[in-house]
Specification:
14 helices, 0% strand, single chain
């Protein structure tokens, strides 16, 4: 067993075969460890401390959720999907190792910034910017060189994320509150979700439509398309709210823009209403992401306009809910098909997705005064950890070993699943 574990970290190990393998495992591991640690910190009143960082515990929590957990998932997705989108070669394992090392260095520098001060903080910022710069250097030319340039928006979003990371670390190094940059980064990740979901959903939803037609013994006569005008409207509304929150925090204008984002996301969902195919496993999991995002922006807008006290609940529906389930879906779908496996059919996948939905709802409900906040926080964290622990249990053996179908890179396999 020890020899097998040591072989995982060798330069030739299968875990470095494709970018998604190491980064997806890191993202899921962070999901379990971060939420578990954070909930224990809250329940013990700080007796179990988190690393001291500029801005305090809540900045550490949000920073690691976004630049630890979510950024690892984004890097794994980009390194795998962008070569597929552009029909170009996979990223070399040595490059994957270097990028993964930068992600680890970003964690180490930030976690030690309270002890070592500005040098560690600067190191963390440089590592994050080098990671994003590396992704842009590797992938942007492929996106721009593609004849139709259909995926070029990903490059602009990565560039914007690099700017947000730079802003965060500049403020942190100047001893100024850096939290606004984390809120901006969350808005960018909501945009990344819309961009990625429009690509993934067409494959998943059309497979479901074909399966549903086959079940009825009929020829498939319905095609799902993620329509660019609806997608672009949702992106513009999310970006507008994010800008208002950054420049005019707490302003009523932000409330109206949050409600506009909610309406645009609901409008985007209308393309999915194609009968019973939506109720199949994978379409329903992806659909729930938009539901929670729309609900999150609705509660944020309601609070900014009516001072309802629902702002935190809305924020957590975006993070624990929308972001958590989107990453879970990507880790499952891309993690299997690019490892040479069909989509998972066993019950643990919907159980994990249901746990994430429940965790998001519980975390949002914890703001209700009649509920015991500590109990609800604990239950919410347990739901989140359960989902990603299930993923690690079932996917670690696949991502840490060679492909069983003889593939040597990131070739995909996708067969119709329930």
């Amino acid at each position: 067993m020890m020899k097998m574990q040591l072989r995982m970290y060798l330069p030739s190990a299968p875990v470095w075969m494709c970018g998604f393998r190491s980064f997806f495992l890191a993202s899921a591991g962070m999901a379990v460890a971060l939420l578990g640690w954070w909930v224990l910190f809250l329940l013990t009143g700080g007796a179990l401390p988190v690393p001291q960082v500029p801005g305090g515990p809540f900045i550490w929590h949000a920073h690691e959720l976004i630049f630890g957990f979510a950024l690892a998932a984004l890097a794994g997705f980009a390194l795998t999907a962008f070569p597929e989108f552009t029909d170009t070669p996979s990223i070399a394992p040595c490059t994957v190792r270097r990028l993964f090392g930068l992600w680890l260095l970003g964690r180490l520098g930030f976690w030690l910034s309270g002890l070592l001060g500005a040098p560690a903080l600067a190191l963390s910022g440089a590592a994050h910017l080098a990671l994003l710069g590396g992704l842009l250097y590797l992938l942007a030319p492929r996106l721009f060189a593609a004849p139709d340039r259909r995926h070029i928006s990903f490059a602009w979003a990565l560039l914007a994320l690099a700017g947000v990371v730079a802003g965060f670390y500049v403020d942190a190094l100047r001893d100024e509150p850096p939290g606004r940059w984390l809120h901006a980064a969350l808005g960018l990740f909501m945009i990344f979700i819309v961009l990625a979901m429009s690509r993934i959903s067409m494959r998943i939803m059309n497979d479901a439509l074909n399966e549903e037609a086959a079940r009825r013994g009929e020829a498939a006569d319905t095609v799902y398309r993620a329509r660019p005008p609806k997608r672009n409207l949702a992106i513009v509304c999310i970006a507008a709210y994010t800008a208002a929150e950054f420049f005019l925090p707490g302003n009523r204008l932000g409330g109206w823009l949050a409600l506009a984002a909610m309406a645009a996301l609901l409008h985007l969902q209308s393309d999915w209403h194609l009968g019973r195919a939506l109720l199949r496993r994978w379409p329903l999991i992806l659909f729930s992401v938009y539901c929670l995002m729309a609900a999150g922006y609705a509660l944020i807008g309601w609070d900014l306009l009516l001072a309802s006290g629902t702002f935190s609940a809305g924020r957590h529906l975006l993070t624990v809910g929308g972001l958590g389930i989107a990453v879970y879906a990507v880790l499952n779908i891309a993690g299997r098909i690019h490892s040479g496996h069909p989509l998972e059919r066993r019950a643990w996948v919907p159980i994990g997705a249901a746990a994430l939905v429940l965790g998001a709802l519980l975390r949002a409900a914890s703001a209700w005064p009649v509920l015991p906040a500590g109990v609800v926080w604990g239950a919410s964290g347990a739901c989140w950890a359960l989902a990603y622990a299930l993923w690690l249990w079932h996917m670690f053996p696949i991502l840490s070993t060679a492909r069983s179908d003889g593939g040597t890179e990131c070739e995909e396999i996708l067969t119709p699943q329930e």
